[in-house]
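Sample intake sheet
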Amino acid sequence: MSIPNHILDQLNSQADLISIIGRHTTLKRAGSEYKGCCPFHGEKSPSFYVNPQKNIYHCFGCSVGGNAISFLRDYENLTFIEAVNELSKQTGIEIPKEEQQNVSYQRISPKSITPPPIASSTVSAKSPTQIINAPSILSVSNSQEQSQNSYRDQSVHDNNSNSYDHYPPLAAYDSVPYATDTYEANYQGDDSYPPAWLTGDDDTAALYDDNSVSGKDGNLYELLEQIQQFYQHNLTIHPHAKHYFLSRGITEDIFETFGLGYAPFGWQHLEHQFPQDIEGLKALGLVRKSESGRDYDLLRDRVIFPIRDNQGRTIGFGGRALDDEVKPKYINSSDSPVFHKQHVLYGYYESRQQRADNWLVVEGYMDVIALYQAGIYGAVASMGTAINESQISRLLTLNPTLTLSFDGDSAGQKAAWRTLEVALPVLGDDKELRFLTLPNNHDPDTFIKSQGADAMREQIATAMPLSQYIFAYLSERYDLTLAEGKAKLMSQVRALTTALPKGSSFRYLLNNDIYQKLGGKRSQNKDAKDALLDFDGDMTISQQLQLCFLFQPRALVDDPIEAIWQQAGINDLQLPAHIKQKASADTLRPLAWEDLQDNALLDIVSTIKRCLNYLPKDVNAAAHFILSNVKPTTQETLSRDWGGFYKALTTRNILSLDGLVEELVSQLIERHMKKKIQDLVKNPDNIKLAIVRKQSQLLNDWLRAQQAEQSAQMATVKS
């Protein structure tokens, strides 16, 4: 059933949008509107406006906009139903009861609780761990799943459409590791029931009043809150459970922050504590039914991690076995009408409370808590399933850089790779994914204990960029000494990059970066040449090179002429003894920029080399710095062409001119050698002529080898 549009309109019009948004950013009146820094993206100059008359918001920086429902949905990551219910509470506007049924259940009248028969001395003498490790006895009846109502969530867009997304029925309950044939032998009750604090035999008052709301419908959120208090209370009266957290370095103030607790050993402690709420307990998956028809508690003798939604409400629980030998080590609540694993990130609420800026995806509850305790906010963990695209998109909205920290073992790295694949469709050019694998098989929890919080911050700051991670991951899986291995790696990279958003520049740049790492020339080389031709096809090679040096002055850090001279083997020229004896030192010295007899080019090269350590980081600013230091004639010529050249390259997203610079310098050297040979033929000097011809031969051989290698590698990439 859909919520009537008039109800949605009332909710949006009567919501206190200024107050809702004001919880997340400071709004100041600007005329008839309110203005502030956008909570959806980082900015220093306010461009986010809220119109209280129309009750809408809009950011002129990132173009996000909407109403109260869309803000709660998009920023606080609520489902449509959660957002509607929240506004209903704030405004007092009632939602049709059909929409509330998904969080309600039928309570039953309290019945007398008959303690189970006292276990025999043989059984009762066993420790909780011994009984937990007994042979598997329980399985779950499918009727439990069939008895649950399917849950429907509704999505809303800015036009207030009210179509529903249908969730499937609750997932089948996980089986519990106890064998059916030994159920009667092991399940003979336990002499701790009813518990002392329930019957009033100890000095702690019961946390729950059986008769307080007798006969009324129950609310799952309220029940979950009471269960959380019950578990948290149990932590205070079970020293061995409390010791577990203390031994892991967790301080008691964190107990309260995360609501940590303990589920006592016993088959039916929840039913004894909440006898009127059996249906609610079953709807939450915390009480299950075995094949023999007996109810049992899902979480037993486990420390408890309450799972909260984005509003801080408890929606489920994670339980960790106290004994590492007990399998599974972790058990999470089943999906329920209020808990859907694919929508929840553990630690998200607590991090938002601390106004976290940098976000880090980790593997487990303890990692989140250890980082939080160390003052490193923004760590979140998925609920036993891989983090999904919408969750990654939400985190990248909060900060354009997201770091993934997974264990260094095979399972951890596979999880990191799966997350990478999931993230690619939402990885726009302004977003960045980084990967952190801690040394010595540490996870964040153990690393902080071993090295401290500052060392952890340093690890996060130096996490590996996506491009490096892809190459590092794939290079371990293919033999890159073979053309076949390179081809397979490039094939997988191409498959990955097709998942990037349409129009992504990163797709092009990543393919070229990996291709270069495999030994190929940058295909940006061709694009850069095309840009030069489009800009001004009549420019000489020297003029093109001068503009390239302006765009990329770092190309002169290692002198290109010296590099080519060495790579071609000209610096180690092998000559007959009689020629070597008669050759002058000037004839054998390496080629220099002065030899090219190009005053403008020499002016640019010498100026850049002189100013390299003082250049601004911005490309355009660095170019103008260089131009201000060259001769007036050089400045006049290049200033006329620089603007168009810079625009031509940046429009094509060309970031590197390494290949083009090498090609242009090679052409200048080749022309210089040819002219020198012609001059020596006209004015014979046999010794010099023999040397220059030998140098020219080595240069030509090197150029042909370069072209052949590039052609072969391009064929490999295309295969």
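Comment: Confidence is low (pLDDT under 50) at residues 112-206, 210-214, 713-719. The longest helix spans residues 686-718.
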